Amino acid sequence: MVMHARSGGSNEIMGLMLGKIDPDDSRGPTMIVMDVFALPVEGTETRVNAQADAYEYMVEFLSVARESGRLENVIGWYHSHPGYGCWMSGIDVSTQMLNQQYQEPWLAIVIDPHKTAATGKVDIGAFRTYPQGYKPPEGLEDQFESVPLGKIEDFGAHQNQYYQLEVSYFKSASDTALLNAIWNKYWIATLSASPLLSNAPYISAQMKDLADKLESAEGGLSHFGRGGGGSYLMGADRPAKKDDSQLKKIVRESSKITREHLQGAMTQAMKNILFNGQGGGGAAAGGAPMDTS
After folding, report:
1. Confidence bin at 291 (pLDDT 50/70/90)
2. For 27-49, how does the pLDDT look when each residue is reduced to its tens digit (9 = 90+)?
3. For residues 231 and 229, what is the distance between their CA atoms, to the nearest angstrom?
4. Shortest CA distance to 124 belongs to which of 153, 97, 105, 145?
5. What are the boundaries of each domain within the chain?
6. What residues contact residue 128 under an 8 Å CB cut-off, 6+ apart?
7. 121 or 232: which carries more pLDDT confidence?
8. Is the pLDDT of residue 235 over 70?
9. How far apart are the first and last CA of the chain?
């Protein structure tokens, strides 16, 4: 899924997942994804939708899979959010609700390929929607997600219409052999790469978005301080609580970004020490291939 998402660049991609249900898992009923396949869809930077040719491709793929002895069913779909986190937009929620109504069991997965490349850890979210008209219990702690300022409204409007599932990973013996073969071929390129430089546009976008959020929060507090003093003395302190909550989210987001970037910087510094015998400079700092001979 990550490889497919990375191939889309800044455009969203979409695919389907083959798998099965394990009702007797110790953690409760579990959806097991065994394989995935890409759908031939045209995505943009904000959305991706399957058209008739995509459904024809799906039917043909499943027919060939059956002929080859694959017995898994389609149990869900995945798509990418390049650079803006793993959550469900309004269109995603509508798509998932429709499929859960007619194709249960059905799972939705979202991948952020930009963040995955920047942090070295797969940024993934697995989701299912609540039944239409269902109101989740109050007091449930929201899952924190760093959402760009331009998409916060869409995120907040649909946040209570779905819930997130726990994700765990497994590998078969053939998966292990395949991944080892890939690693043997690409380990030098991986070791010599600099995530801080190769993902500089994504990191810059994160910092700009954080600055915009701080400016927005500061503007709200300034406006409240100029015109809302009397209302506050009368006990109408809701705007202050709202702004305070917004600032807390910004602090959490800045801390999260700092941790991710520090991890990348520490990794790069360690490479410099190991291969250049010094704490800074050298070819590794520029992202160029290192002489490992």
Report:
1. very low
2. 788 999 988 888 887 666 556 66
3. 6
4. 145
5. 2-170, 192-285
6. 96, 100, 106, 107, 108, 162, 163, 165
7. 121
8. no
9. 34
Rounded to whole angstroms, the Cα distance separating 80 from 157 reads 20
Q: Is the pLDDT of residue 110 over 80?
A: yes
CB distance 108 to 78 below 8 Å: yes
State both tokens at 14.
Answer: 């979409």
Q: What is the CA radius of gyration of the chain?
A: 23
Please tell me the distance from the alpha carbon of residue 106 to that of residue 13, in angstroms, as a whole number. 18
Containing 137, the helix (H) or strand (E) segment is none
The angle formed by the CA atoms of residues 276, 282 and 285, to the nearest 5 degrees, is: 110
Architecture of domain 2-170: 3-Layer(aba) Sandwich (3.40)
| Whole-number Å distance between alpha carbons of 71 and 19 | 9
Cα–Cα dist 47/191, whole Å = 34
CA 19, CA 4: separation in Å to the nearest integer?
Answer: 18
